[in-house]
Amino acid sequence: MSELKAHKPDLRDLSAMEVQDLMVRLGEKPYRARQILAWLYRRGAREISAMTDLSKELRRRLSEAASLFWYEPIKVEEAGDGTRKFLHQMADGALVESVLMPEEDHSTLCVSTQVGCRQGCRFCRTASLGFQRNLTPAEIMGQVLVARDLAEPDKPLTNLVFMGMGEPLDNLDFVCLALDNILGEYGLQMSQRKVTVSTVGRVDKLPEFARATTAALAVSLNAPNDELRSRLMPVNHRYGLDRLKEALMAYPLKPTRRITLEYVLLGGVNDQPEHAKQLMRFCHGLRCKVNLIAFNPFPKAEFRAPLPDEVAAFQNALVEHHITALVRRPRGADISAACGTLAARHHA
Ligand code: SF4
């Protein structure tokens, strides 16, 4: 938090304990913190002046000590399938996208954690932006609160996937602080089973992540052998598949939980029968399920989508070997909201 404390923090950059400390510093009773936290998360206050059960004087002093920003999208695009992509502008002008996907009776939000990304995965459009900066906890939480407000009433926001722009474990401290407020008693109280954080496989950060949060873990695998994975995902040069598997085997999972392996099928590249066999070997002994995602081509992409038959054959091969493998429906492809296509360009 030192990076944040140097400036006047956004109230949503603070943990529940830090909000309490702030109240004590302002000469207030600690219970005031609960009132403020309710405004921040349950009631979704957009500005400090809206906290009307605090005295005017306290609101004034609070405004001197901290800020509160609302990340209303500056642009909303809606796809034919109801998926909506939000473009958020941060206080410094940085642009970030999030994607709200309505399901039958709930909605899922794909959340961004960085402006750009430094991982350079070759099938991902965000990679072309390079890395600009980490998002703060308030900027991460801001996407969630906006989506909660904008979700259709009969499809409330219940699920989050940290699979938008950025590698969450490259921004571990801020992501975990946001997760505390997303899952916590004084925060949004979302279910830990319904909040999933996806990593390219920062093996070095996994133990710290497991200690810091109970959110579910997904790993963006995408290739079942080192030669191919290193070609697609530079992180594999540092943490090859043996090290990744070792780290996942050691990952402390509750008895009913599994790790999700995300696998983007790139036509003719990683979707052949031998790849399915290699993937089975990787899954052996691991409590996991596999999500298969057909690649969504974007302008200048160097890969093509897989053929439907190849997707089905790949899935069947896994299922026949008792590996849970689901094919994820591509969402919002017509507005570049699908997996790996977020680029936060403001083309109004
Ligand atoms: S797939 Fe994820 S980690 Fe890889 S470059 Fe894209 S945003 Fe970064």
TrEMBL record:
Which intervals hold domain Radical SAM core?
Answer: 103-334
- Any additional notes? Reaction proceeds by a ping-pong mechanism involving intermediate methylation of a conserved cysteine residue.
MF terms from GO for this chain are:
4 iron, 4 sulfur cluster binding; metal ion binding; rRNA (adenine(2503)-C2-)-methyltransferase activity; rRNA binding; tRNA (adenine(37)-C2)-methyltransferase activity; tRNA binding
Please list the residues that make up the active site: E97, C339
**Presence of the UniProt keyword rRNA-binding in the record:** no
An annotated GO BP:
tRNA methylation
Q: Give the function comment from the record.
A: Specifically methylates position 2 of adenine 2503 in 23S rRNA and position 2 of adenine 37 in tRNAs.
Report TM segments.
none
The main location class comes to: cytoplasm
Q: Where does [4Fe-4S] cluster bind?
A: C117, C121, C124
Q: Species name for this entry?
A: Dethiosulfatarculus sandiegensis
Q: Which InterPro entries match?
A: Aldolase_TIM, Methyltransferase_A, RlmN_N, RNA_MTrfase_RlmN, rRNA_lsu_MTrfase_RlmN/Cfr, rSAM, rSAM_sf
The coiled-coil segments of this chain are none
* HAMAP family (alphabetical): RNA_methyltr_RlmN
CDD domains, sorted = Radical_SAM
The record's similarity note reads:
Belongs to the radical SAM superfamily. RlmN family.
Q: Which cofactor does it need?
A: [4Fe-4S] cluster
Its organism's taxonomic lineage begins at: Bacteria, Pseudomonadati, Thermodesulfobacteriota, Desulfarculia, Desulfarculales
In the UniProt record, which is one GO cellular component term?
Answer: cytoplasm
Which reaction is the catalytic activity of this chain?
adenosine(2503) in 23S rRNA + 2 reduced [2Fe-2S]-[ferredoxin] + 2 S-adenosyl-L-methionine = 2-methyladenosine(2503) in 23S rRNA + 5'-deoxyadenosine + L-methionine + 2 oxidized [2Fe-2S]-[ferredoxin] + S-adenosyl-L-homocysteine; adenosine(37) in tRNA + 2 reduced [2Fe-2S]-[ferredoxin] + 2 S-adenosyl-L-methionine = 2-methyladenosine(37) in tRNA + 5'-deoxyadenosine + L-methionine + 2 oxidized [2Fe-2S]-[ferredoxin] + S-adenosyl-L-homocysteine
SUPFAM superfamilies in the record: Radical SAM enzymes
Q: What is this protein called?
A: Probable dual-specificity RNA methyltransferase RlmN
Tagged with keyword Membrane? no
Q: Which residues of this UniProt protein bind S-adenosyl-L-methionine?
A: G166, E167, S198, S220, L221, N222, N296
| Record keywords | 4Fe-4S, Cytoplasm, Disulfide bond, Iron, Iron-sulfur, Metal-binding, Methyltransferase, rRNA processing, S-adenosyl-L-methionine, Transferase, tRNA processing
| EC number per UniProt | 2.1.1.192
Report the co-factor binding details. Answer: Binds 1 [4Fe-4S] cluster. The cluster is coordinated with 3 cysteines and an exchangeable S-adenosyl-L-methionine.
